[in-house]
Structure formats: C-alpha cells, structure tokens
Specification:
Blueprint lengths: L1 H20 L10 E9 L5 E9 L15 E8 L6 E3 L1 E2 L4 E2 L1 E4 L13 E9 L10 E8 L10 E2 L3 E2 L2
Antiparallel strand pairs: 1-2, 2-8, 3-4, 3-7, 3-9, 5-6, 9-10, 9-11
C-alpha cells in the first residue's frame, strides 16, 4: 500500500511539473497585424486577408455594432511617374480612406490573448479598371481604441 501511495505521489508531481512548464501565450494589448493575401473577384471587389494578435481579445465589434474599426487607404501606380499615389477625393480635400466594421470572434475571448485571421471584403478595389498595379495601407483599432501597427501590402497586380 505504501508503494502505491508513492507511485501516485510521483505521478502527481510529474503532472504538476509538466503543467507548470507550459507557458501561456501572451501578446501586447495593442493589436498587431500582418498582411496575408489578396483575393480579387469578378467585377471589382476583392478580399484582403490579415493575420492579427491582441493581448486582451477586444478585436472587432458585436454583431449589431457598425463601428468602423478596420481602415484601408488605396494607392495606385501612376503609369507616367511609375510611383504609387494615394487616390485623392477633391470634394473631401483628402485621400480615400475606407472604413470597415469587423466583428469580434466571440465574447469568450474578451480579456484573453488571441490570434487569428480576418478577411475583409473590399467593395471596390480600384477607382478605374485601367489601374493594374495597386497597394493598400491597412490598420485597425480594437475596442479600447488602441491603433495597430500600419501595414503596407506588397504591389498587387490585378487583371
């Protein structure tokens, strides 16, 4: 009986040591994003995919929340200068920055470090079908108002 007790004690101690060695994932509370992919569709829409991490899990809004928290600035390659230029809207005296509302992955993630991918459907990927090379500058805000890093996509060629 004494040897059985020590076997269970040894097994419990080994289990405790293994569990204590497992590190919990941690990320900064300010979201971080990384460009993953671009998927153009027939017509002029496209999906842009990013990878994200957030230390407190407050990425995105609720199902009925329409707050824009994902921002995209569109740049096109000028065929004369061969440089990228932000699309300018004269009426607003500003460049075109389009906001999208991304949804939270679920309440179970609030307050916990999370990572994942999100796809955002760009309703209009360019201002003219003559534009064949473009880039996007992307960032997002979490529910606490923390702005992520700003990411510029590589050159994207579209048909």
């Amino acid at each position: 009986m004494n040897s059985l007790f020590f076997k269970y004690l040894l097994l419990g101690a080994c289990g405790f040591i293994l569990i204590s060695c497992v590190k919990k994932t941690s990320y900064p509370t300010v979201p971080e994003i990384e460009y993953q992919a671009f998927y153009p569709y027939a017509g002029d829409s496209a999906d842009i995919q990013i990878k994200f991490t957030d230390g407190d899990g407050d990425i995105g809004g609720g199902e009925t929340d329409s707050t824009r928290n994902f921002w995209v600035t569109y740049y096109y390659k000028d065929t004369v200068t061969q440089k990228y230029t932000a699309y300018y809207i004269a009426q607003k005296n500003d460049t075109l920055r389009t906001g999208y509302a991304i949804k939270a992955p679920g309440d179970a993630y609030k307050g916990k470090p999370i990572s994942g991918e999100v796809n955002v459907r760009l309703q209009q990927m360019r201002h003219s079908k003559k534009v064949k090379s473009l880039k996007y500058v992307i960032y997002l805000f979490d529910a606490a108002g923390n702005k992520s890093n700003v990411v510029t996509t590589p050159e994207i060629s579209v048909p």
